[in-house]
Design brief:
It is built from 6 helices and 7 strands; from the N terminus they run E-E-H-E-E-H-E-H-H-H-E-H-E. It has 199 residues and is of the alpha/beta class.
Length: 199
């Protein structure tokens, strides 16, 4: 493990237990012995075809895999192994996540309140909406009222309200125009330059 690593994944294996027919249980391995480090000040991108396990890797790090998943290997944050308990303490402040699906937005809560969440302020939410070119009235809208690109920008805003030490982004730019996608990636670079790791 490198001394500066904010995230270390060591020999990670993700598999699923599935039933074939009525009684035969099978194990399908989808991430095979993967190891990587993300250092402070660094942006690491995992590139692969659709279905190659990129989202499963992000979900394994965040502890969001379904009950039929089995995970082996080690995932460490700042040198300490991540458990469900330690993840809970880190999530939303030191460790944040931009999911691929906009379905992660709460359908019955206005998006302004979702971005403010537990830790942030209305002023910070307004600052981010302006940065991501979301009109003022967006904060009073529900997710179903947003375009795909707007929903994506709300998700990004939610993840960067605090200054995370580790930002996990699962395909954060689909649905964004070229200019907004580039602005988002530049913002990730700014976050990394302040000592965070982006993955």
């Amino acid at each position: 493990m490198k001394e500066k690593s904010i995230l270390t994944v060591d020999d990670l294996v993700v598999s699923f237990h599935m039933y074939k027919g009525l009684f035969r249980k099978e194990r399908l391995e989808v991430v095979h012995s993967l190891s990587l480090d993300v250092n402070r000040g660094e942006i690491v991108a995992v590139v692969g075809s659709s279905g190659s396990g990129k989202s499963l890797l992000a979900h394994a790090i965040m502890g969001l895999l379904p009950d039929n998943a089995a995970v082996s290997g080690r995932i460490c944050y700042d040198g300490k192994e991540l458990t469900q308990k330690t993840r809970k303490a880190l999530l939303g402040k030191k460790m944040t996540f931009i999911p691929q699906s906009v379905d992660y937005l709460d359908p019955v809560m206005k998006v302004g309140k979702q971005v403010i969440g537990v830790y942030s302020t209305k002023e910070r939410q307004e600052e981010l909406f302006e940065k991501y070119k979301l009109p003022k009235e967006t904060e009073e809208m529900y997710p179903f009222q947003l375009s795909g690109g707007m929903a994506r920008r709300v998700l990004v805003s939610s993840a960067v309200t605090e200054m995370p030490q580790l930002l996990i982004a699962d395909e954060p730019t689909p649905g964004l125009g070229i200019e907004m996608a580039m602005d988002t990636l530049k913002h990730f670079r700014e976050i990394a330059d302040q000592g965070a790791g982006c993955f």
